[in-house]
Structures are given as structure tokens and as C-alpha cells.
Design brief:
mainly alpha, Arc Repressor Mutant, subunit A, three-stranded antiparallel sheet, 7 helices, 3 strands
């Protein structure tokens, strides 16, 4: 089904508008795929993203600006996300010893354990999402998406 059929749109769209609308519509569908998976583990996409960022620190702390900079969803409220993850016991926050104005965030063992559980499930979900595309198509799509972001 093409994007016009999905949106029940009978008005012709310019190629640029069609592409952007198609990207936004597809993005929402992809997000919905993962929502139920994360919900089963009492997480959101954004919280999962924070946990992955912190795991990538390999035991080193991350400050709020580093986390925000690396977030996929830049509009997320990082402080609120960290607060929720602290409540769940998945991350810890402490004041930096060298700079008392700086907050450092660490992933806990419980957070690492949850990611170990989620990693294969997320990989499976991601593969399900792209199962209709061949490897060369996936490579070309990634190349085009990378190119689209270069502005």
C-alpha cells in the first residue's frame, strides 16, 4: 500500500512532500513496533535509549548534556527520563567530585541486566520491521537516509 492509500489521500502530492510524509508515517509505525516490547519491561523508547547510551560509556559517568546530545529523540526531557530510571533502579546519579555543579549518571547492574534481556528482543523486532527489504535495499536505504540528514 502506498502512502496516499494509507492516508486515504486523493490529492496529488509533490515528490518532496510525499517523501517527507512517507518518512514521518513510517517512523511512527516503526516506533509502534517497539512500544509494546518496551512497555512489557516498563520502559519507553527514550528510557531505553538512555540506558544504551550509559552502557556505551563502559562504566564511565555521563553528564546530562552528553546524554541529551546522543539521544535519538532530541526533544526528550533528559532530567525527567533520568529521574524515572533512578526510581526503577536502572541508573544512579551523583554530584561530580571535581565540579559540584555537574551531575554524573551511571547505569546500574540492574540496568545492564535489563539491556541483556532486551538486546535479542530488540534485534528480533528490528529484523521483523525490515524483513521485506533485501540486504542491498537496506544498504541503499541507509545511504539515502544518511544523505538526507546531511544539511
Amino acid at each position: 500500500m502506498n502512502i496516499e492509500q494509507a492516508l486515504k489521500n486523493n490529492t496529488p502530492l509533490s515528490q518532496g512532500s510525499r517523501t517527507v510524509i512517507n518518512l514521518m508515517y513510517t517512523c511512527r509505525q516503526v516506533e509502534e513496533f517497539g512500544t509494546s516490547l518496551f512497555k512489557e519491561h516498563d520502559l519507553t523508547h527514550q528510557q531505553y535509549n538512555v540506558l544504551r547510551i550509559l552502557r556505551g560509556q563502559k562504566g564511565k559517568p555521563a553528564n546530562l548534556s552528553t546524554i541529551t546530545e546522543r539521544m535519538i529523540d532530541k526533544s526528550s526531557n533528559t532530567t525527567r527520563l533520568i529521574d524515572k530510571l533512578i526510581q526503577k533502579g536502572l541508573v544512579n546519579r551523583q554530584v561530580c567530585e571535581k565540579n559540584r555543579r555537574k551531575i554524573e549518571v551511571f547505569i546500574t547492574e540492574e540496568g545492564l541486566s535489563l539491556l541483556k534481556t532486551l538486546d535479542p528482543l530488540v534485534e528480533h523486532t528490528n529484523n521483523d520491521i525490515v524483513e521485506n527489504l533485501s540486504t542491498p535495499e537496506l544498504e541503499k536505504l541507509n545511504e539515502l537516509l544518511d544523505k538526507l540528514r546531511k544539511k
